[in-house]
Amino acid sequence: MSADRPPAEGAEPIDEERDRTPVADADVCVIGAGPAGGLVASRLAEADLEVVILEAGPRFDPADRLARQERAIRPAYDRPAVWDGDPERDAHASSGERFYPLNHARVKGVGGSTLHWQGMVMRLHEDDFDSASARGVGTDWPIDYEDLRPYYAAAERELGVSGADDNPFAPPREEPHPMPAFRPSYSDGLFAEACDELGIAMHSVPNARNSETDDGRSACVGYGTCQPVCPSGAKYDATVHLERAEAAGATVLDRVPVQRLEHGAERIEAAVYATPDGEERRQEADAFVIACGGVETPRLLLLSESSRYPDGLANSSGLVGKFFMDHCFAGTGGVLDKPTRQNHVGFLTSESHQFYDEADDEIAPFKLEFFNYDGPSPVGLALSGDDWGDDLLERLRAEYGNHVGMGALVEQLPREDSYVALDPEQTDDRGNPVPDVHWSVGDRALETVERVNEIQERILEELGAEITWQVGPEDTGPAYHHMGTTRMGDDPAESVVGPDLRTHDLENCWIASSSVFPTGGAMNPTLTIAALALKAADDVRESL
């Protein structure tokens, strides 16, 4: 089914004849063509190494993005359909206490999750690296903020971040952001009046989208459909670095899902991948970098079990797949008796980290988000009734344009009973067990969601809004930030990779992914993923 699924209407057909032959004499095989894989591949290819990238999903034509945008705004299509998600190929299980809708926000394809992400990129705070020491809960990372600080700066340059030095709660910086921040929106100004009265500070949001023309990509033109598609290319996606890698001599093979990793006692020998016609081929290399995200990375390692590693590859600790984390969402919204210009901007331009570093063993770190988008779209409203013509126009004018909303991300602590495993019954289109996401949250996160709701209510009430919806402890859901399933640490018995991102068990295998996060903090993870990917690339290059 997945091999024959048509692309978006108006898109060019996928080239079935594309060469998917293994690359001879490869120095590095990167598995996964998302942001981490793209950065690693680009950095190593530009260092004159022979690099091959294996990606399970297709290569999408940039010319098709307007067609995908049209699909995104049509209510008949759900999120996975925008980027040709396939129920059989992408099948998964969810056995945890809360259902985990994995396919709602992931893309299999060249570019990965950055094809549909919102694009916010902030650094973790200093205490996020020392949670056990500073907050009395969780675990400490084997590296600290200062270790990652130069890589954060490099990642901001690589992604092209627009931001300002106006956040008094952010960790220290060493240079300005590459581009100026986006100006506060009209609704930001409404929120600012209420927050000033309550003593709550607002500040700009660093975004991986161009506020001005940069790197051959236009400035943001305001399509407003950032999630799930940016037609202009102003928002960064990983195809930027994959194209750089190819220009430096790397090879990208698409639609070649890796089935397993063949290995000896201490080294990976080959990645066995399937082609669209069902043939299996072996890609050999001197070094392997797994960059498949927090779900598919542990799944691949578990699928690669052997007599040497009966519980899964690189799993002598027994922790592959364990400590799955996400950020819990807390939100509150309502309506005002005046225009709010809802949906004029498709991304966040203001936040508040004021309460973040008050975290302790009872209250988790969290950040407040001030939405530029809330309430129904005009299309959704039009479809919700039976009226037409002037009656419809009158209703739209009455019901659209006065909505306002807030969100927040809340840290979930690492828990061993929150994990990714192989489902014992269900298989994908290749006959492999699908991932089972067993998501458990914990009381600290839920109590923090409740506290966040109280703050949001105070702000909206000060604003004069009638509150019409809320997402609280009972119905909180994930932010789709998959973290923690191959955690980093110094002790091989308590972690999967070391501080250099190399697995403890295999001397030629690195993991570049949010899966290595020991804790999650409450910041969107992509900038930290990018920084760690650049760190891993440096170590791979030195080892070769």
From TrEMBL:
<feature type="domain" description="Glucose-methanol-choline oxidoreductase N-terminal">
    <location>
        <begin position="106"/>
        <end position="327"/>
    </location>
</feature>
<dbReference type="InterPro" id="IPR051473">
    <property type="entry name" value="P2Ox-like"/>
</dbReference>
<dbReference type="Pfam" id="PF05834">
    <property type="entry name" value="Lycopene_cycl"/>
</dbReference>
<keyword id="KW-0274">FAD</keyword>
<dbReference type="InterPro" id="IPR000172">
    <property type="entry name" value="GMC_OxRdtase_N"/>
</dbReference>
<dbReference type="InterPro" id="IPR007867">
    <property type="entry name" value="GMC_OxRtase_C"/>
</dbReference>
<feature type="region of interest" description="Disordered">
    <location>
        <begin position="1"/>
        <end position="22"/>
    </location>
</feature>
<dbReference type="Pfam" id="PF05199">
    <property type="entry name" value="GMC_oxred_C"/>
</dbReference>
<dbReference type="InterPro" id="IPR022357">
    <property type="entry name" value="MIP_CS"/>
</dbReference>
<dbReference type="InterPro" id="IPR036188">
    <property type="entry name" value="FAD/NAD-bd_sf"/>
</dbReference>
<dbReference type="GO" id="GO:0016614">
    <property type="term" value="F:oxidoreductase activity, acting on CH-OH group of donors"/>
</dbReference>
<comment type="similarity">
    <text>Belongs to the GMC oxidoreductase family.</text>
</comment>
<feature type="domain" description="Glucose-methanol-choline oxidoreductase C-terminal">
    <location>
        <begin position="414"/>
        <end position="533"/>
    </location>
</feature>
<protein>
    <submittedName>
        <fullName>GMC oxidoreductase</fullName>
    </submittedName>
</protein>
<dbReference type="GO" id="GO:0050660">
    <property type="term" value="F:flavin adenine dinucleotide binding"/>
</dbReference>
<keyword id="KW-0285">Flavoprotein</keyword>
<dbReference type="Pfam" id="PF00732">
    <property type="entry name" value="GMC_oxred_N"/>
</dbReference>
<keyword id="KW-0560">Oxidoreductase</keyword>
